[in-house]
Amino acid sequence: MPDKKPDLRVQKTQESIRRAYLELLRTHPAKEITVTQICRLARINRGTFYLHYQDTQDLLDCLVNDLMKELSEILHKYSPRQLNENPFPIIYEAFSHFAQHADILPLLQKNGNAEFMDKMKSMISEMALTEWLPLHGDQKPEDYPYINAFIVSGTIEVFQVWLESGMKKSADELAALIERLALQGIR
Questions:
Q1: Smaller CB count within 10 Å for the chain: N or C?
Q2: What are the pLDDT digits (tens) for 97-127?
Q3: Comparing C-alpha atoms, which of 136, 133, 74, 139 is closest to residue 101?
Q4: Would you say the C-alpha torsion 8, 13, 15, 16 has a positive or negative sign?
Q5: Closest CA to 148 of 162, 129, 120, 173
């Protein structure tokens, strides 16, 4: 049986709701945005909103979860061995993914959405501990938590600086920088 294609009307409605929410995020803290404001801007009624989302937090969670699902697909596209031999492609794809969402990410950052950063940290940490670090036989397992903290913190901080600077550097430039730092340090 073929996969059921999503209803185009449902997709358009959800996109309209998301656009309205993002527009409101530009001028309002996330916690102050109401369903009424979203509905008014999206030109829908409250019942339509509630067909798709439980509340504004659910809408925000869906936006974050969609970003994280896409990032997870990128991170799992390469085997740990491929990443160990050449980390550039995965770093490049991850930052390219984020660059494609330049309209959402600064708004999440501005609104202090810790959930997004926490999920990203958790995803990177899990991959480092379970997939990347075991490939390095020269590292002691008791050092994994420290190495992992260094990898996760460095990646997240670079990401945050990139967001705060208006995402001026290209994904290519950032991937090259992170790869060089990860493989060679600051020499």
A1: N
A2: 888 888 788 777 776 567 778 888 888 888 8
A3: 74
A4: positive
A5: 129
